[in-house]
Write a structure and sequence with these properties.
Rossmann fold; alpha/beta; about 280 residues; 2 domains; four-stranded parallel sheet
């Protein structure tokens, strides 16, 4: 039997993940009291049980008992049961924004500030995050991208290293992305903006892509960048990093950066051991 514990930050996507796992054939139970975990596992692992895949949701509504939950889950593993912990996370800024948009009250905030509730919750769930087999940061993740990640982990059983890579194109004239871990400047390439027939197109158009990639420097840059990332990624994973934003910028974020981000995505998307997504920040400008 496959037993998945879904936990993490309130607003991080736990309920959404549980619904998706249910659609994938998991028997899902949310917010079970920690004191009942042992009994629950005993029931679903009985010889005559027809349940083969279970997802159990645990969050701060269970009270200040996450240390006990961690102990119970360790005990289950020691007894030979396959227990996997999926931790749903998001940045503080993303969580605050979600609470403001939905007008919901954080379970630990009471009548105070959402930020205080988030801070307290991080302390409470830290023990389970350390034990997590999978950490998914949903700060910039679309619903369909989350479904793809869950499908990759729990249906296709592909290797997963808790790393989500975002390839981000941007324009320097609008500022460097605040969440960028690595920033690369491709303004050394000729700018299609100065060609009338390409000015109002973007790197998503074949004509712009062909123009940018005709220069040997573009291909050489991609080769060197790919090699650098192949070196860095395993080391980031080793250090426990689970979110990497690679930003590629040109002047306006429409032509060169979009083209090279697209090309880099094509090279990296089938790697399988990490999640990867593509985002063009200035696409609506």
């Amino acid at each position: 039997m496959r037993f998945v514990v879904v936990t993490g930050m309130s607003g991080g996507g736990k309920s959404t993940a549980l619904k998706m796992l249910e659609d994938m054939g998991f028997y899902c139970v949310d917010n079970l009291p920690v004191s009942l975990i042992d009994k629950f596992v005993e029931l679903i692992t009985m010889p005559d049980s027809e349940i083969s895949r279970v997802a159990l949701g645990l969050d701060v509504r269970a009270g200040h008992s996450f240390t006990e939950a961690s102990r119970i889950l360790k005990k289950q593993k020691e007894e030979g049961r396959q227990v996997e912990i999926l931790y749903m996370d998001a940045s503080d800024a993303a969580l605050v924004k979600r609470y403001k948009e939905t007008r919901r009250v954080h379970p630990l905030a009471g009548g105070g500030r959402v930020e205080d509730g988030i801070r307290e919750e991080r302390k409470m769930v830290a023990c389970l995050k350390k034990e997590a087999d999978y950490i998914i940061d949903t700060s910039n993740l679309l619903t369909r991208e989350l479904k793809q990640e869950l499908d990759r982990i729990f249906i296709r059983d592909e290797e997963y290293n808790n790393l989500m890579i975002t390839l981000l194109s941007f324009g320097f004239k609008y500022g460097i992305p605040a969440d960028a871990d690595l920033v690369f400047d491709v303004r050394f390439l000729p700018n299609p903006f100065y060609l009338e027939e390409l000015k109002n197109k973007t790197g998503n158009d074949k004509e712009v892509r062909d123009y940018v990639m005709q220069f040997p420097e573009a291909g050489e840059f991609l080769d060197k960048l790919t090699e650098l990332l192949e070196f860095l990624i395993p080391n980031y994973v080793k250090e426990g990093k689970y979110q990497l934003v690679v930003a590629i910028g040109c002047t306006g974020g429409q032509h060169r950066s979009v083209t090279l981000a697209n090309e880099l995505y094509i090279r990296m998307k089938d790697h399988g051991s990490y999640g990867i997504k593509l985002f063009h920040r200035e696409q609506n400008k």
